[in-house]
Design brief:
The structure is a single chain. With 338 residues, the chain is α/β, with parallel strands linked by helices. It has 2 domains: 23-190, Collagenase (Catalytic Domain) (3-Layer(aba) Sandwich), CATH 3.40.390; 197-284, no CATH class. Helices cover 28% and strands 11% of the residues. Helix 4 (115-127) links the parallel strand 3 (106-107) and strand 4 (135-142). It has helices at 12-22, 37-41, 69-84, 115-127, 182-190, 198-201, 211-218, 300-313, 322-337, and strands at residues 48-57, 88-98, 106-107, 135-142, 152-153, 169-172. The protein is built from 9 helices and 6 strands; from the N terminus they run ααβαββαβββααααα. Strands 1, 2, 3, 4, 5 and 6 form a 6-stranded mixed beta sheet that branches. Residues 4-25 have low confidence and may be disordered. Bound molecules: zinc ion (ZN). Zinc ion binds at residues 1, 3, 185, 189, 195.
Length: 338
């Protein structure tokens, strides 16, 4: 999942390519058992310690963008604090420094091409182990460009790349430090979390412009042109109590429907529909796009997804047999209820 808080051009097409790969017919497509609420909620919430290997690509012999190991440590403390809420801890292996004439020290500028994206993948293949035993985090600078700045790119656990040297996470070195939250947010994608606005602002509009679509827009039910024609559409919870919100959007019923927004206020009025149906939508969730200063929350459904998806798809990043213990605990849990 790539972030386009500051750089939006050329991203949507790639996002949609990726989505198309996983899309199905009829209902909102699921990537695995952990997208089913009953499976998700039977996951034991025993502690999970995740190993993280950081790879810093040096620029002119130094860490890029003025990043220091103290700043990285401050970021890691922030990660422990935010994810500790979900019983997730980290083992941060000491950062490895890399330098080579074979690859560029900075990712090329962000533009409409895929050059920057290919460069990231090339670096990952070069520096990461083919069989990862950790979440590999690639830290580099990026050449500034007119398209804006890319902050970070996580890999969903159900993406086949997650178990290879093309998985892990790329972070722009300029966005690491004690008060930054991009890293915290990106790890959420690695753990299987969608954006809280996924069911409102990240959906297909295959029939945009049809009469049905226009009628729904007039009724104020769609926040994005013809959103409601998409099977993943997450309507405002207070207006549509009949919905099973665990089956749409981010698959978490306890994160209210919200559109993508970039400020710390509680979102109410959708800027496109001009309807106030989103009253009470979350503005402090780490998986939203509110500023770093006001995001620090995660919910119980997000917690269950994180533990379920991580142990289902990427158990190799969890230390001390954490996933095996989880499975044993959830089996005895189920035994009790049988
Ligand atoms: Zn994101």
């Amino acid at each position: 999942m790539w972030e386009y808080r500051k750089a939006r051009y050329g991203v949507k097409s790639i996002f949609e390519d990726k989505m198309t790969k996983y899309n199905g017919e009829g209902s909102c497509p699921k990537q695995g058992g952990c997208d089913i609420a009953s499976v998700r909620d039977s996951t034991a919430m025993t502690p999970m310690k995740v190993r993280v290997r950081t790879h810093v690509v040096l620029q002119d012999g130094a860490w890029p963008n003025g990043l220091t190991s103290d700043m990285l440590k401050a970021q890691e403390a922030s990660l422990k604090k935010d994810w500790g809420q979900l019983n997730v801890d980290f083992d941060f292996v000491e950062a490895e420094e890399h330098t080579s004439s074979k690859y560029p020290s900075c990712i090329p500028e962000y533009d409409g091409s895929n050059v920057w994206y290919d460069a990231i993948n090339e670096l990952k293949r070069t520096l990461f182990d083919a069989e990862p035993d950790a979440i590999n985090v690639l830290v580099t600078c990026q050449t500034p460009g007119s398209g804006g700045t890319l902050l970070g790119i996580g890999t969903f656990p159900w993406d086949p790349a997650a178990a290879t040297n093309e998985g892990g996470l790329w972070m722009n070195a300029a966005h690491i430090g004690g008060t930054h939250k991009t890293y915290n947010h990106e790890l959420g994608h690695n753990f299987g979390l969608w954006h809280t606005f996924h069911g409102v602002s990240e959906i297909f509009c295959p029939t945009e412009g049809t009469e049905d679509c226009k009628a729904l827009m007039r009724m104020g039910l769609c926040s994005w042109a013809c959103a409601c024609m998409d099977p993943c559409w997450e309507p405002p919870h207070n207006l549509h109590p009949e919905y099973d919100y665990n089956n749409v959007g981010d698959f978490c019923a306890d994160t209210g429907a919200t559109f993508r927004h970039w400020d710390c206020t509680t979102p109410t009025t959708d800027p496109i529909c001009e309807a106030d149906e989103f009253t009470g939508a979350p503005n402090d969730n780490i998986m939203g796009y509110s500023p770093d200063s006001c995001i620090n929350k995660l919910t119980p459904h997000q917690q269950a997804r994180v533990h379920c998806w991580t142990c289902d798809a990427t158990p190799f990043v969890v230390e001390n047999g954490g996933c095996a213990k989880k499975r044993a605990a959830s089996q005895s849990l189920r035994g009790h209820h049988a």
